[in-house]
Structures are given as structure tokens and as C-alpha cells.
Amino acid sequence: MTAASLDSSKVNCFTLIMDPIWPESAGQRARELCAEAGFEHLVLYPDDIADLLHMRESPEKLWEEFSATYEDCAHFFGTFLINLAGRQICENRGGSHLLVGYNREDIMAELLFCLVNGRRPLPFPKRRTGEVDCLMPVWDVPKHLLDACYPHYSEINYSERVDTTTPQRSAIYYFAHSLDALVPEMSMSLMSGTAKLMDELGGWQELSSLPGTPLLTTGVGTDHEREAVVSLLSRYFPRWQVTESQTP
Question: Which of 40, 111, 181, 192 fits a 20 to 30 Å CA distance from 104?
Fold first, then answer.
């Protein structure tokens, strides 16, 4: 995808910079890729993120408290903040679509996670997320092919990742990566078959909003667990209208 195939004035790329999750060097690589494609690129540093999301304190302070409360949560926290920032940028600029780089193994792992937790799969490659449609243009592309497009950048990305993992997440991803190693294209068969079945049954899992916040949930977890997360986050986002019943 390049600016030649889209109206570049309608494509806004963004990168968050916040050590240790997203180092400055990651922003520079993103600048180079966006310049090559001809897209506008917005770089948001901690103060910019705080202003964008109307935070009471810095996202660095939030990460410090969140990571001290929930172990090995860098992947989840990063996805949360990127999604929140992307949706806010869409709102500020009148955008209706948020494109994310979820690849084949990401979607396969998410599908498996939903199933093993007794939940229906979430829609792909288009998913309503708050007020925007979240699009996944590389949902069917294996991670190793994406890495091969810019191998030097990919190698650096991996070397700079926060050294953290979650056993359950790692196990699901290991399974997702193993499917095609066992039987070529098995993951595509499973995802395509599941999508066909969900479309026919109207059975996709819907994301539920948590009143007064931009947070969305599939319903996994207990009420107490959700309330604890909302209570922690709401201290940093004063514009959220959180009621006492939503906090422990």
C-alpha cells in the first residue's frame, strides 16, 4: 500500500514514543517508512499522548503503576494505549477507519483465545471499535513475510522489545504459529471456515462498552477484575465518567 493507491491526504500514520515500550529509534524507523510510502506521519511523545487523551498525569506514570500492579503486561498495555490514541486521532480529524497491523498469527491467536475462554470469535478483518471501524489489511499475511519486507528494521524491532511475556499469551501464540508448520495454510482454513460460520449464524462476539469510558470488553474476567482495572485507569483520565458501581 502506498500513497499512489490512496488519497494520501486522508491517510494519517502515527507512532507513540515512550521508553521503555517504544524507544525514540522506533519513531525514526517509522518516519523513514512513512516517507517512503508518501504518508503523513505523526509522532507522539509522552506529553503529546497526555494532551491527546486528556490525561491527569503522564502515560509514563500510568505505565509505572500499571506494570507494578499487573506483571508482564507490556503487550496488553501497549495495545490498549495505541488503540486509545488511534481512536482519539480519528475523532479529532474526522476519521472513520483505524488501520492496524494485526497479522495472520495475531488473528489466529485471538480466535483461539476467545474459543478456549468460551467466547465467540471477534470479527475480522473489520471490527467496530467504539466510534470507528478497525480494519486489518494484513490479517492473512504471516508474520515472517511481513518481517521479510524490511528485515533490518524487523531485527532491530525485536532487539528493542521489552523483555516480558505472559505464559498464557505465549502458549496461544505458539499454537497459532505451529498450525501452518504442521499443515501448510491450516490457519487460513480454520480462520476462513470460522468466519464463514460466524457470518452465516450472525454469531460474532461483540465488544461491550464500559459506561462513561472508552473501554471495550469481551466479557472475559470477573466483575471485580474489571472494576479494579477501571479504578486504576480512571485516576489518570479525569474526563471518564466512572460511577461508584464500576469501582471496587
Answer: 40
